[in-house]
Design goal:
It holds the Pfam family Beta_helix. Keywords: Signal. Residues 396-570 form the Right handed beta helix domain. InterPro entries: Beta_helix, PbH1, Pectin_lyas_fold, Pectin_lyase_fold/virulence. There is one protein chain. The protein is mainly β. Helix content is 7%, strand content 40%. The strands form seven sheets. The chain has a 23-stranded mixed beta sheet that branches. Strands 5-22-28-31-34-37-40-43-46-48-50 form an eleven-stranded parallel beta sheet, with no helix packed on it. Strand 11 and strand 12 form a beta hairpin. The radius of gyration is 25 Å and the shape is globular.
Length: 593
């Protein structure tokens, strides 16, 4: 894990003049002559440019690559060179709490939602179970803007705790409304009388939560975060922190007692590009960015797989009158083509890591590492573009291969390893994806309501996906929605599916159609303790799928589809050797060396 050193340095080395008949290449080396954005501007429109980055760069604002083309960003050290949006905050023992470290936040522009010490993510304090229970009690009344708690017979210590809450205490609704999502809304204020506490919630978030599409409304929190210093002091989590926003001060409990500073991500966007063409990022690490929407008035209302709802619907039992937008990522490209990431790392990021949308085409993400990400590793495409006929606006021909994706969705647990909306000719191959609270790969959208769409010819092959669905239910290692003609799931090895109820390892969900699912393995079914289906085809809207040459160690599956054929399913009993065909699939799955 890299630590951040505040360097905003670059140098520009002009390339040799070439004959007019040949393209000229300008070179830019870090550190040296200019900051990174100035170097980008110098090379913009130059024909061909290379930016060599040899020292860590701390960004103070997002790197803007709009309309850039034909530039390579290359890290030139043995390890990937860091591009960071973090601010280094000195820490020293707190004068009034010797077990804690304190730091001054006057240099932080944002909310200081995330904090790292020696590369270790620290969590925010949580309310006790007794406090959470107040919000689910029968005597508590709920409106579209508040909870009102009857306190006449409550322990005065509980009352005092809730009454002391400040803005941005955050309710977390894990698996509520639907077993696969996790929404979040923040407190705005608390009003107290002799008989009640009214906890006012930020709106429209709390209204949307209770008027969410597809019959998934809720108001029942499972945990409550960012609750205060007392909960930090009593927390069993040895790596945690709390921000006293009023006094611009942070309190840190850390297992790294020798640490003299923390890194607080202060930017929500590290890199953004629109209309970008033919640029490459190689041997770079993108670190320390944040995401503050959950504490905004709109909050974080998740439908599924990071697709967010921003306002309440008039008919919450209906799914047809909603605009879903992907949870944003800290590095994003829209309407861009031939953008390539190779040998890069994405870590310590507070949103999704990398996003392509708005007509993204011919982009590649290869040989890269994604770890310690709050949301998804890679978001490809959108959720409201099913019937776009202008091919320049369709998401097509993008490749995600030979990447390691681990410990992602570790804050926004309803997001997936890789998330794809509507797309065509997408290739997701030879990745290793693991340590996930929900699904490994999710592709498609719409539950068939917009079929036929342009989604087609997608390939999910030779991936090694394991230790998934560890928290939430009704997901899969490979999950699909709606018709995607001529698409294939082939040569994948899935194992260690978690105990989250519902779904299955291979899960073509509602209205999935025209897939071929062939030559796949599911092993170690005993890792799962509940509802452990290797295949989950649960209803008759799922149709025209061929499932061939499956190698599994459980007989548990479900097939209620129409024209969903199953051929040559080989069940390996305990103690038996796997067939050589299955061993070949296992050996070939995952990152190629």
């Amino acid at each position: 894990m890299h630590t951040t050193i505040t360097i905003v340095l670059l140098s520009v080395i002009l390339g040799l003049s070439l004959p007019a008949s040949k393209a000229q290449t300008q070179l830019c080396s870090v550190p040296g002559d200019a900051d990174l954005q100035a170097c980008v501007e110098k090379l913009r429109g130059s024909g061909r440019g290379v930016i060599e980055i040899t020292a860590e760069v701390q960004l103070t604002e997002a790197l803007n690559l709009d309309n850039l083309s034909n530039v390579d960003f290359v890290g030139t050290q043995d390890a990937p060179v860091v591009i960071s949006g973090g601010v280094r905050i000195p820490l020293s023992p707190c004068s009034n709490f010797q077990d804690l470290l304190c730091g001054d936040l006057s240099s932080i522009k944002g909310l200081a939602r995330h904090l790292y010490v020696d590369g270790v993510r620290h969590s925010r304090p949580k309310a006790s179970a007794n406090i959470v229970a107040l919000f689910t009690a029968e005597s508590t009344t709920v409106s579209t803007s508040s909870y009102t708690i009857d306190i006449k017979e409550l322990d005065s210590r509980l009352v005092k705790t809730v009454a002391s809450w400040s803005e941005n205490v955050e309710m977390v609704y894990t698996g509520q409304g639907s077993p696969w999502s996790e929404s979040r809304c923040a407190v705005s204020s608390v009003d107290a009388t002799e008989s009640t506490l009214t906890v006012n919630m930020k709106t429209p978030c709390f209204d949307t939560l209770q008027n969410k599409p597809c019959g998934q409304s809720t108001s029942t929190p499972v945990t409550i975060e960012n609750t205060g210093l007392a909960d930090l002091l009593s927390s069993d989590d040895e790596n945690s922190f709390w921000v006293d926003a009023k006094n611009s001060r942070v309190y840190v409990k850390t297992s790294t007692s020798q640490s003299s500073f923390a890194v607080i991500p202060d930017l929500e966007t590290l890199v953004f590009g629109s209309n970008v063409r033919s640029i490459t990022f190689k041997n770079l690490s993108f670190e320390h960015a944040t995401y503050n929407q959950a504490t905004s008035p709109a909050g974080f209302i998740e439908q599924q797989s990071g697709a967010l709802v921003y306002e309440p619907v008039t008919n919450s039992s209906c799914c047809d009158d909603t605009t879903w937008l992907p949870m944003p990522s800290n590095v994003r490209f829209t309407d861009s083509s031939s953008v390539k990431f190779s040998g890069c790392e994405f870590r310590a990021l507070g949103a999704g890591a990398l996003q392509f949308d708005g007509g993204a085409r011919n982009n590649e993400v290869t040989d890269s590492l994604f770890e310690d990400i709050s949301g998804t590793a890679i978001q490809l495409g959108e959720y409201n573009t099913a019937n776009i006929t202008d091919k320049s606006l369709q998401v097509t021909s993008n490749t995600i291969s030979d990447n390691v994706i681990r410990n992602v969705a570790n804050e926004y647990h309803g997001t997936c390893g890789v998330q794809v909306g509507y797309s065509a000719y997408t290739e997701i191959s030879h990745n290793e994806i693991y340590d996930l609270p929900y699904s490994g790969v999710s592709i498609g959208w719409g539950w068939g309501r917009s079929d036929p769409s342009y989604a087609s010819n997608n390939v999910i092959s030779n991936n090694k996906i394991h230790d998934f669905k560890l928290l939430l239910g009704d997901g899969g290692g490979i999950y699909a929605l709606s018709a995607q003609p001529n698409s294939t799931v082939d040569g994948n090895w899935l194992f260690n599916m978690g105990a989250g109820a519902g779904g299955g390892a291979y899960y073509p969900d509602q209205s999935s159609a025209y897939w071929t699912i062939s030559n796949n393995v599911f092993s170690n079914a005993s890792f799962c303790s509940d509802d452990c289906e290797w295949l989950h085809v649960w209803q008759d809207s799922i149709h025209d799928i061929d499932i061939v040459n499956s190698y599994v160690d459980t007989t548990t599956y479900e097939n209620n589809g129409i024209d969903v054929t199953m051929e040559n399913t080989v069940v390996v009993e305990e103690g038996q050797d796997w067939p050589y065909e299955a061993k070949d699939i296992m050996d070939n799955a995952g990152v190629r060396q």
